Structure formats: C-alpha cells, structure tokens
Amino acid sequence: MSASRGVRHAYATVLTIALAAIAAGCTSLLAIGEWASGLTQDQLATLQAARFKGRYIPPSESAIRRTLQQSDAAALDGILADWMAEHGIPDAIACDGKTARGSGNATTKTRHLVSAVIHGTTRVIAQTAVDEKSNEIPAMYTLLDALDFTGTLVAADAMHTQRELATDLV
User: Fold this and answer.
1) 75-127 pLDDT tens trace
2) How high is the pLDDT of residue 3?
3) Nearest to 10 by CA among 74, 61, 63
C-alpha cells in the first residue's frame, strides 16, 4: 500500500504487523497503528518493512486500514484455516458463536460469527458468519463441513444439542 509520501509496504508485512498487534492486545485500527509506530528498527527489519532514506518505516494507521479494508476476508480466513490444519488434528475443539465487537454501526448490523477453537488454546481453526436472518445452528453445519475432525471431541453450547447435528458429527 502507498502512503501519502510514497512509501510502499508489502501486503504480507502490513498483515503480519496487524496480526501481531492484535495478538498483543490492540483492539482498534488506531491502536494497531500506534503499536506499529513503536516497533524498533530491528523488529521492522525482521518484518521486512519498507525502507525510506535508510530507515525502516512502519505502515501508518491509514495504510493498515486501507490494506485490511481491501483484503478478501473469506480468502484470508481460508488460508489461515489451512495453515492451522497443517499443524495436525486437535484432540478437542470448542465451537461457539460471538458477535464481533465494533462490527456494526448506524447503517450496518453487527456481524455474528461461529468459530471452532482448539480446546485449551485461543487458536481459531475455522469460523463462518451467521446469516443475518438466521441463527448459529445452520452456520455450525457450514463450519464443521470445512473441518476434518476425525477422532476429535467437539464441544458446543446448549443451542447445538440437536439430534441431527450429533448424527452428522458421528
């Protein structure tokens, strides 16, 4: 992405910085931008940040925002799920739905997601959006269809104690 002064940042660098900032507890684009601006030259070099006049330059908040807005969230989610799947089938996963904080405003409804998390960790291995005019139950089928969970214990809340879902899992 290009900033107003012409510095170009690699997509992978901007995405990695945004993900690292989120893992560090940042919950807004402004916080991610501030976190990025606090990275050392060695950290920026490791992240392969752009160079300008002999110094590594972190992406600005606006560059991070534009990059994330232009990203294909479904494709990115698929890539991350595939990467997580390469690390082996977990012993247990927990599935639950959550409303994405800050995802709605005066003109758009909040987004609700159903996610599968490796039990005992915070590693999300798959997630899917709940249709606006539906609930978590149909989304759970979509979520589980994307996973190979042979030999995996699947835990979910009471909403998912459905005979048909249990039959599909077995």
Assistant:
1) 887 777 777 667 666 788 888 888 877 777 777 778 888 888 888 877 787 78
2) 42
3) 63
Beta bridge partners of 50: 57
> Cα(22)–Cα(18) distance, rounded to whole angstroms?
6
Q: State in Å, rounded, how far the first CA of the chain is from the last one.
A: 47
Contact 65/29 with Cβ under 8 angstroms? Answer: yes
Alpha helices in the chain (DSSP H): 11-23, 29-37, 41-46, 61-70, 73-85, 136-145, 163-169
Is residue 139 a contact partner of residue 131, using CB atoms and an 8 Å limit? yes
Q: Residue 158 burial (CB < 10 Å; 0-12/13-18/19+)?
A: exposed
Mean pLDDT, residues 46-51: 92
> DSSP assignment of 82-123, as one string?
HHHHTT---SEEEEEEEE-TT---SSSPPPEEEEEEETTS--
Other C-beta atoms lying within 10 Å of the C-beta of residue 116: 28
Beta-carbon count within 10 A of 26 CB? 17
